[in-house]
Design goal:
Blueprint: H1 2-14, E1 17-21, E2 27-31, E3 36-37, H2 44-63, E4 68-73, H3 79-90, E5 96-101, H4 108-111, H5 116-120, H6 124-132, E6 138-142, E7 145-150, H7 154-159, E8 181-186, H8 200-209, E9 210-218, H9 223-232, E10 235-237, E11 249-252
Parallel strand pairs: 4-5, 4-8, 5-7, 8-9
Antiparallel strand pairs: 1-2, 2-3, 6-7, 9-11, 10-11
Helix pairs in contact: 2-3, 8-9
Length: 263
């Protein structure tokens, strides 16, 4: 099953991929085969900034006084990571450990053609440096920002149990995760293109990976997604979406959680 999933994602990345302009002047990637884009046509940068930074990281950083453990499902082009990096440069009091999952990485040569750099104010060399960092290794990017990108699926990550505190990984069993997460960027491809990522079994994994009072944010606002999240025990909110989109989804793990008040 995992091999078939990897082959499907690999085909998605590699067959007939081209650059696609979006309404805010930034670019995303488009697959001719699947007729699917990586970001909103309304604007790649503005969508990521709104959904994941404004409605995700900013909210989490206002609620948690500790280091925020952040999990991204779908490293993709690295846009969410770079926007997080810029937020943490502006807010050095916020501490984040960022884990990104990507089973089949987008080729760096292709990423290098995405002209995010001028729009978001980052040097191309730095953007590509982040993509060239080794997989499955932890890096201290800033004094308040550590990062690791893992070349594995969500299933593989979930099935690897947390390492005991102070424990050492063994050769026989790799422990990818040390603890659960306060914030999840759920940025998988759309349910119509990658339905297995939106099934309730996958959402159950994400629920189990979320700490009490933790957040999950995603661009998707489908009713079935919201119903499934509620069934699992999340409290679901529907903030305004990016650039005129009516809604997005933000879920919180604790049903008794009232806008910043931990019961």
């Amino acid at each position: 099953m995992l091999i078939q999933a990897r082959q499907k994602i690999f085909s998605f990345y590699m067959e007939n991929i081209r650059l696609e302009p979006t309404q805010d002047g930034s670019f995303t990637l488009f697959s001719e085969q699947f007729q699917e884009i990586y970001h909103s046509r309304r604007g790649a940068v503005q969508e990521s900034q709104h959904v994941f930074i404004q409605e995700g990281l900013e909210k989490a950083s206002s609620f948690f006084a500790k280091k925020i453990n952040l999990l991204e499902i779908g490293w993709g082009t690295g846009l969410n990571f770079v926007l997080t990096y810029q937020y943490l440069l502006r807010n050095p009091h916020v501490q984040v450990h960022y884990v990104a999952l990507e089973p089949i990485p987008v080729p760096v040569d292709l990423v290098g053609h995405l002209p995010y750099f001028s729009q978001i104010g980052i040097k191309k060399e730095l953007f590509l440096h982040f993509h060239h960092l080794d997989w499955n290794k932890k890096y201290d990017i800033l004094p308040n920002f550590s990062f690791e990108k893992l070349n594995i699926t969500l299933d593989e990550f979930y099935e690897s149990p947390p390492a005991p505190k102070g424990g050492v990984n063994t050769k026989e069993e790799t422990k990818f995760r040390e603890e659960n997460f306060d914030l999840i960027y759920f940025d998988a491809f759309a349910p119509s293109k990658q339905p297995e990522m939106w099934e309730i079994n996958t959402l159950q994994q994400l629920y189990n990976l979320t700490n009490d009072f933790g957040f999950l944010v995603t661009y998707c606002a489908k009713g079935q997604l919201k119903r499934d999240l509620k069934t699992l025990g999340f409290t679901v909110e529907s903030p305004n979406g990016a650039m005129g989109k009516r809604e997005m989804t933000r879920a919180r793990k604790n049903n008794n959680y009232e806008l910043g008040i931990k019961n």
